[in-house]
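Many introductory courses stop at the sequence. We go one step further.
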Amino acid sequence: MSTLLLALARENPWPGLAIASLNLVVALFLVGVGLLLGITISLVAWLHALVEREPVPAHHRAIRS
């Protein structure tokens, strides 16, 4: 079977190149989606922490500065 595939690839390499290009595009798309999801989740976690934190009293703010 592999000999037949190699013979076909030698005769017409374009289908193999098209599949390889499609695989590359899909891989890059999935990496981009993963990065976008990671950034989105970290932003939501940061906003949640920002909303949930305790307010600092005024006299503590004066000591910090």
